[in-house]
Amino acid sequence: MSAALKTDKSRAVLLQLLRRGPATVDDLAEQTGLTPNAVRFHLRSLEEGGQVETAGIRKHEGAGKPAVLYVLTVEAEIGFSRAYAPVLAATVKELQESVPSSEIVPFLRRVGERLANGAKPSKRSLAQRVAAGASLLDSLGGSTTVSKKNDLYTIRGQGCPLGAVVAAEPCLCEAVESLLSNVIGSPVKQRCHHGERPSCCFEVRGESGVYSLES
């Protein structure tokens, strides 16, 4: 086994152990057979990657030095779950069967507004606000690039953070379009690819540009 694979395997084991609850370096070393120094090395890398964080200390009954407790971050916990996509898909399906079709898009746009959490666009330039919108998509699991041609900005993603559901329910892009519109402070149009492997694409016109019905 290569050193890289061995490292990945060790870190995967540590993450699984931390799913059971807070643990110290010594706890993890005892359960994995790794040395405490090796555990510290892996935990440091996992902390830098945003998967592990400290959560207080455990005091010993004697005079020993308190031991730092480590836990998974919320983001890491979410990454282990496979429930989000099927629950979201079932929710959208139930929504479609329970309310008039004319109410679906307005509902999803309100979801986007709620996700924006009352964000007020800054007084920065449009280019900076578009970059901030792209960064937000990246933080949600996207991998985006921003390009500009004339007065048109395009945020294009490799894949889609909601791809597991969007393939069957492309209407969900309305929520993301609304989210970006609220964060950027300018009208956003989604031009996403809705196929087996969905990918994001959102357009933002320059301050003087407008969208036509044919655009």
Rounded to an integer, what's the Rg over CA atoms? 22 Å
Share of residues in helices? 40-55%
As residue ranges, the low-confidence spans are 209-215
Quantity of strands, as a count: 6
CATH fold annotation of the largest domain:
Muramoyl-pentapeptide Carboxypeptidase, domain 2
User: Going across the major beta sheet, what is the strand order?
Assistant: 3-4-6-5
Instruction: Please identify which CATH superfamily of the largest domain we are dealing with.
Output: Trafficking protein particle complex subunit 3
Structural class comes to: alpha+beta
Architecture per CATH nomenclature, i.e. the level-2 architecture of the largest domain: 2-Layer Sandwich
The sequence of SSEs as H and E is HHHEEHHHHEEHHEE
How many helix segments?
Answer: 9
Anisotropy-based shape: elongated
Gap between N and C termini: 54 Å
Q: Give the tally of structural domains.
A: 2
What value does the average pLDDT take? Answer: 89
The fraction of residues assigned to DSSP E strands is 15-25%
Task: Describe the model.
With 215 residues, this protein is of the alpha+beta class. The chain has two domains: 3-80, Orthogonal Bundle (Arc Repressor Mutant, subunit A), CATH 1.10.10.10; 84-205, Muramoyl-pentapeptide Carboxypeptidase, domain 2, CATH 3.30.1380. The protein has nine helices and six strands. It has helices at 3-18, 25-32, 36-48, 74-80, 84-98, 104-116, 126-139, 163-166, 173-184, and strands at residues 52-58, 67-72, 144-149, 152-157, 188-190, 201-205. It has a four-stranded antiparallel beta sheet with strand order 3-4-6-5, with helices on one face. A hairpin with an 8-residue loop joins strand 1 and strand 2 (67-72). Helix 2 (25-32) crosses helix 3 (36-48). The longest helix is centred in the N-terminal third of the chain and has 16 residues, at 3-18. The N and C termini lie far apart (54 Å).
